[in-house]
TrEMBL record:
Alphabetized InterPro entries for the sequence: Chor_mutase/pphenate_deHydtase (IPR008242), Preph_deHydtase (IPR001086)
Domain Prephenate dehydratase: 13-200
Enzyme superclass (EC): lyase
Record protein name field: prephenate dehydratase
Source organism of this protein record: Serpula lacrymans var. lacrymans (strain S7.3)
GO cellular component: cytoplasm
């Protein structure tokens, strides 16, 4: 059976970090509702590599306001396909509220192991230190996956009746065999995760948001020195940023995928200074050209 259509076209498919019930799923649904078909993947890497003509959209976590940047995502942004067949085309921000979930009947004092995504574990350090100081922390690919594991006969040799998961409270409506022991266990109530919306091309049609879109535009630029410049000392990153000459709102660094020690790539997110500036796209492209003239490499990874 064909998918329902929007404006005469089939719904686009969007990949997200599954299973159903993850924060990624919640963020995707809050943004797109019923305007896309959802396709869950097991890891952030799987979500990224799902982009294709048949799966033109993907949502991956970029940063948490408590735990910081999502390293897996920035490692994927180093891929040569970024800016060629994969593009950042938007962002989504979700308020995060963590719950401690167990099988029904399990008490707090019985918990010896806590399962969740490493970001969620990091965001609940204070609660875990105070209430479960001796529990081992078991990283999982996703928060919802950790919750589902509680229903297994065994979790890699661990007794599920001595385990808990950190996840969204929505999971208990999906898995009624589970219950919430504690809600709001994150270290900071001002806890948000930002996601990047990826598209298979820079002209992929994206369903409009239900709320008014942001008025200021963003772009993500990846800059580095080419391998041949590594013999040149010092490698002045400030020179490349000055050459870019755009309004920088964040700067991230990761090791280059090239087999060269301490060769780094920088991800520079920029924002237009004047809202709805008709020349802003040209300003970004001119900035990239200036970086090249200074001996650097610059790639436009997305604009939204």
């Amino acid at each position: 059976m064909a998918e329902p259509q929007i404006d005469g076209q089939e719904k686009p498919t969007l990949a997200f970090l599954g299973p159903v019930g993850t924060y990624s799923h919640q963020a995707a649904y809050d943004r797109f509702g019923s305007t896309v078909t959802y396709s869950e993947r097991q890891t952030i890497t799987d979500v990224f590599h799902a982009l294709s003509p048949s799966v033109p959209l993907a949502l991956i976590p970029q940063e948490n306001s408590i735990h910081g940047a999502v390293i897996d995502t920035y490692d994927l942004l180093r891929s040569p396909c970024m800016g060629k067949t994969s593009f950042v085309r938007g962002d989504v921000v979700l308020s995060i509220k963590h719950s401690l979930v167990v099988r029904k009947g399990v008490r707090l004092g019985e918990i010896q192991h806590v399962l969740s995504h490493e970001q969620a574990l990091g965001q609940c350090r204070a609660f875990l230190r105070e209430h479960l100081p001796t529990a081992s922390l078991v990283p999982y690919a996703s928060t919802a996956g950790a919750a589902r594991a509680l229903l297994s006969p065994s979790i890699d040799g661990l007794d599920p009746l001595k385990c808990a998961a950190i996840c969204s409270r929505v999971i208990v409506s999906i898995l009624p065999e589970l219950e919430i022991l504690e809600e709001g266990i994150q270290d900071n109530n001002v806890n948000y995760t930002r996601f990047y919306l990826l598209a298979y091309s820079d002209h992929t049609a994206i369903p409009p948001p239900s709320t008014a879109p942001p008025t200021q535009r963003h772009a993500l630029v990846r800059i580095s020195y080419p391998p041949g410049a590594m013999a040149e000392k010092p490698r002045n990153q400030t020179r490349l940023l000055n050459a870019l000459d755009l309004y920088v709102i964040r700067l991230d660094r990761r090791p280059s995928p090239l087999p060269i020690p301490f060769h780094d790539v920088y991800f520079v997110e920029v924002e237009e200074e004047t809202m709805t500036d008709p020349s802003w796209t040209n300003q970004v492209m001119r900035g990239i050209q200036r970086v090249s003239k200074q001996g650097g490499e610059a790639n436009l990874l997305g604009m939204w």
